[in-house]
Each structure stands twice: as structure tokens, then as C-alpha cells.
Write a structure and sequence with these properties.
By secondary structure, the chain is mainly alpha-helical. It is 48% helix and 5% strand. A hairpin with a 6-residue loop joins strand 1 and strand 2. The structure holds carboxymethyl coenzyme *A (CMC).
Length: 444
Amino acid sequence: MADGETRKAEADGSVGTATESLTVTDNRTGRTYELPIVDGTVRAMDLRQIKASDDDFGLMSYDPAYMNTASCRSSITFIDGDTGVLEYRGYPIEQLAERSTYLEVAYLLIHGELPTRDELDRWTHEITHHTYVHENVKVFMQGFRHDAHPMGMLLGTVGALSTFYPAAKAIQSPEERHMAAVRLIAKMPTIAAFSYRHNLGLPYIYPDNDLSYPGNFLSMLYKMTEVKYEPDPRLERALDVLWILHADHEQNCSTSAVRGVGSSEVDPYSAVAAGVAALYGPLHGGANEAVLRMLERIGSKENVPDFIKGVKNREERLMGFGHRVYKNYDPRAKIIKRHAEEVFEVTGVNPKLEIALELEKYALEDEYFVERKLYPNVDFYSGLIYEAMNLPKDMFTVMFAIPRTSGWMAQWLEMVQDSETKIARPRQVYTGERGRDYVPIDRR
Ligand code: CMC
């Protein structure tokens, strides 16, 4: 199995039985142990039996950043990072981006199967009729400072939703779980658009149920005095494709945050707020914003070689490049790059595209990047599209959070129903002092 590949389990998703094993010898004691190998993994808890003495706690694995630890069994998203493969529920991302819609993909992620026509109609109706937020959510958002970062507003407001839907605490109830998934997917664009309008000092625009999911979002962003906003179908489709590409990505930082926080059995709004917080960071969803700021700093194509030199001297990071799992071109970046051209037909070419293309060309030929298998990731081109749509940089990560909500909820639902779920509680290697006597402040 290649390094970046999601571990494949038994086809039916059940916990496999061990037919393979690992034999290890503890050189401290000379004792030998046989550890079962299931689905290409050994259980870290099986190490605990390995002890240097009777009162020894037992061996632990040490894995900061979970570089080599599978934290769950999942049947939602498959990635082969070495060859650049991404599948949702077994369907290649290229086919979904080409032929599906974001709402259909959200259904697929949540329910595990593509919907029939009736199921899709019901799902679309349900989502469309939950896009409104309680008026007090609006009032709550109006309390943010005029220049509050929209991602901070989203984070606070999603957390606040838990107080509007206290019944969601009943996480053992399939009906409550379903309602939380519907409400979160439906309301995320509304809250996102309100945060954008807030920054501009413009009145918030209520959802328009006649429009598609992305079309309604464009209306809530851009509607001014016209009676009815009519989204450009090309922008509507480009947004839909971007959202398909961002919908899920297995156990990344924000999804792990949702699962980790959710494992305490808190309500799903609070768990998803944790995901929004994790996504905010510049090494995760904040990278698309960082890419645009980087392109701005580079300024022109001519400055690219100097910038690359700085990256190699570790003065800078080439944002939008590299990935923990992909050691090949991120398949999402390939699709986005194609769609960028279609968006630019509507909006005119973003002049920073030239710098981005030059950066990519340089990096893909440079030994530093080749050796480390650093390729453009999903964030390298998405910001250029958002900017062409007139969105300020602060909004870019919000644009990622909207579609990732379906992935977070699919993963949360899977976790809640997994019989192996326990509260997430890693161990540590303690490196501090022990047994010190308290010293009064005037004697320190
Ligand atoms: N620019 C320059 N060098 C890099 C970069 C980069 N973007 N990414 C990795 N490297 C180097 C890194 O310095 C290290 O070199 P060395 O072994 O000589 O010390 C080597 O490549 C391995 O990198 P790493 O930091 O150990 O890799 P990681 O798996 O811990 O980090 C990453 C993955 C995505 C955080 C990192 O590649 C990065 O910071 N990229 C820029 C930020 C970015 O674009 N993030 C978006 C990720 S995709 C969307 C998402 O998940 O939200």
C-alpha cells in the first residue's frame, strides 16, 4: 500500500478479522509478542501489554499530529494521495464535479447513496425551506464589530445556533440528527452571506426559495435594489462545482476537530463550530486567503524567481502548495484550474492568474519542490475565482466552510453511530518536573 492512501477495510465496512500479524521482540525483556494486523493497522492498545516490568504502564505509540494514526473507520471519503485520487462514497470527484450538483453530493455524503429523483426533490425542498435563520440570529450578528472577520462571525454564530435548537442535544435521536444536518447545510450560506453584508454595512438579504442553492447564495451576497436577483448561470455552476470539490476530505484538521469535540456527545452545532474554528487557520482553510495575499506581495511575474528563492531559504512558505496526504497534483486543484477559465470569461481575467501560473511552472520544475513532492493544492486557484467574483479575501475561508458542512455532518453522523466511538482522549509523554514543594512568592 502506498503512503498517502486511505486504509481500505473489508468491503462491507465491518471490523475485519485478523489473518495477518506482526511479531515484535521487546529488547528490554527479550519477550516476543504477536500483534494482529487488521486492515493494514495494528491497534495501539495492543501495545499496552508490552511492559518492561510488572508495574510498567505498558508501551504507547507517540504520534504528534497523527502522521501515522488512523483515528476511526470511515466509509465516506477515499483518498490515494500518491496517485491523486479522491472519491466520495466510491464516486470519483471528477465525475461528481462534471455531472452532479452540490446538494446531490451533500445527500450522497450524508446518506451514503446517490438519491433517486424523488429523494433529491424532497432533500432540496427540505434544505431550501430551512435557509431562514431566527430573527434573533440576525440581531446577534448585528452585534459584531463592523469589521469583524466573517470567519469569526461564522464561528460564533454557528456555536450560537446550539442555543436556538436545544433539542439537538438528543444525539441518539435519528430525527434530531437529521434535522441538525438539514439546518446546518441550509443555514450556513445564509449566515455566511449575512457576515459579508455586515462588513459592507449593507442590509442582510433574506433567502430566495425560487433559486438554486448556489444561486440563492449569490442573491444573498449581491442583491441590491432589483426586485429579483438573477444569478449568472455560469457563476452559479462554478460555485456549485467549487462546493462539490470542498465537501469532504476525510480526517483533516477540521473534521478531526468535529469528531473529537463531538465525541464528548455535545450537540452537533457546537461540534461543527469546532470544525469552523479549525478551518479558520492559515495552514488549513485559511490558505486560500493566504495565497491571494502572497500573490499580492509578489506583485508581478518578474518577481517569482526571487520569491521562490525565499521559499527555498525558508523565509517564506509557498501557500497553496503541499499537502499532508497528496504527494501528487491535488485532483481538486486540476478541476478548479479548468473552471477558473470559465469564470474569467464572465468576470474578466484576474491579473494575479499570471503570477500563479508562473509560480506553479517554477515550482513544478524546481528540485526543492520535486524532491518534497509539493504540488498545488485545492487552495491555490480557488482564491483567484473568489476574487474574480468580487469577494474580499476575508470571505474565502467562509466559502470553504459552506460546503464542508455536509462533510462535517456526514462524519459526525458516522461517528455518533459507530459502536467503537468513545470520548477522544489522547495520552501524552510527560516531560515536566515532578514532586516539587510549593515556594511562597516572597522566596522565589
Ligand atoms: N512551501 C514550502 N515548503 C513546504 C511547503 C510549502 N507550501 N509545504 C511543505 N514544505 C516543505 C517543508 O518545509 C518540509 O521540508 P523539510 O522536510 O525540508 O523540512 C517538507 O516540505 C514537508 O512539509 P511538512 O510541513 O512536514 O508537511 P505537512 O504534511 O506537515 O504539511 C501542509 C502540510 C499543507 C501544512 C504544508 O504543505 C503547508 O504548510 N502548505 C502551505 C499551506 C497550504 O497551502 N495549506 C492548505 C492545505 S490544502 C487545504 C486544506 O487542508 O485546508
